Sequence to fold (252 residues):
Amino acid sequence: MSIITRLRCITLDVTGTLIAYKGELGDYYCMAAKSVGLPCPDYKRMHEGFKLAYTNMAKQHPCFGFADKMPNIIWWKTCVRDSFIKAGYDYDEETFEKVFKRIYSTFGSAAPYSVFSDAQPFLRWARKKGLTVGLVSNAEYRYQDVILPALGLSQGLEWDFGVFSGIEGVEKPDPKIYEIALARAGDIAPEETLHIGDSMRKDYVPAKSVGMHALLLDRFKTPDAESWRESGATVLPDLVAAQEWLTSEQST
Fold:
């Protein structure tokens, strides 16, 4: 008997599982700088600066400033300004405001993202099978309200409910975010739920800790995948393979 016969709900991670970033971070920061007549920032310095700034903001104001009631745009403005400063670019206020406006609007649109070709078919297939489909993501409200619908992944067509850290105030790997998902699904039992993601730490371990089934996607052939398998995790290359696994007799 295949595992799908025992499931009532599937939850999925978003970035790396359903969608991916297009190009490099530097591409978008370069376009923003050029739009106001500035030279292109150095890609490597910009990438490193952003990593440091984002990590600091996530520690100081987790879940995109949820607990501090920090407006989303202020969280990102602080993060982007610090990214430039750490990369060695300290623009005057008027210049930065113009650059930031371009960056914020770009990352609040479908432009920097692409949808994996198997994402929409898999989500629609799961819902057609009668499963409740939920998204669990460390992301802010624009994923739910703007970005995913613009990418053709809409609530009511491809997914039923979303649990986004910037809206809930809880983020992966905290198991509580998975408990919220189970409640939102209609108090479906964890053993009747499967979570699909691309991170052992943020997806697999916390989902399993609350009693859910879990599997990992290795879309980019990460070196960690071998250790995932050795630890007993089911690791598959994509959602086409996940669909086959769900309906196979070996998935029980």
User: Anything to note?
Assistant: The chain is about 50% helix and 15% strand. The beta strands are 9-12, 19-21, 113-115, 132-137, 161-164, 193-197, 213-217, 235-236.
